[in-house]
Structures are given as structure tokens and as C-alpha cells.
Amino acid sequence: MNRIEQLKEFLKSDPKDNFLRHALALENIKLGNDAEAKILFENLLQDSPDYVGSYYHLAKLFERNNEKEKAIECYEKGMAAAKKANDQHSYNELQAAYEDLVY
Asked: Is CB count within 10 Å lower at the N or C end of the chain?
């Protein structure tokens, strides 16, 4: 059983587990399946907008797919979520990526 199959199996018992959903999206990115990863990240963030780690990866996915405005919006939402969570490390990473894209 490959990692994606394992993660999907784990998700059957807890479909809203954010860690597993995030991990599944990352595995899809590794395999070049950005479309599936995008859906997973967007659904995760819709359900749990405070799951800060997913904003960075979704924004990078948008960047790779030449969707600059969506990437900027995602970085901004991520920075707001990180600030709300008092997560300075994540905020700094999001801000650096945002500034690299915008400036």
C-alpha cells in the first residue's frame, strides 16, 4: 500500500483530521497532482481556516500554476491566520514568500 492509499485509509476513520488531510495534499504534490492537492487544501482551509501550515503550500501551488493573484490572497489569509494564532514563525515564512512574489 502506498502512502496515499494509507492516508486515505486513515481518513476513513476520521475524515476531518487536518493533519492527515494536509499530509495527503503534500503527497499529491510530490506526485505532481496539483489539482487533487488544491482541492484537499481548499477543503481543509474552508473547514479549518486556522490550520496555518496549509496556506503556504496552497499559495506555492498557485504560484507554480501561474495564479499569482490567488497566491497573494492565500499568503495574506495565511498571515492573518498566523497572526491570530500568535504563530510568529509561520507568519514570517508566509510574509517572506509573499514579499518574494509581490516585490
From this structure: C
* Amino acid identity, position 64: R
Rounded Cα gap, residues 3 and 37, in angstroms: 14
* pLDDT single digits (tens) 21-42: 999 999 999 999 999 999 999 9
- Looking at CATH, the fold of the domain delimited by 3-102 is given as 1.25.40
**Which residue shows C-alpha cell 476513513?**
12
Contact between 43 and 21 under an 8 Å Cβ cutoff? The reply is yes
Q: What is the pTM of this model?
A: 0.94
Quick: pLDDT tens for 69-91.
Answer: 999 999 999 999 999 999 999 99
**Predicted pLDDT at 1:** 66
Torsion of CA 89, 91, 97, 100, to 10 degrees: -110
8 Å CB contact between 7 and 18: no
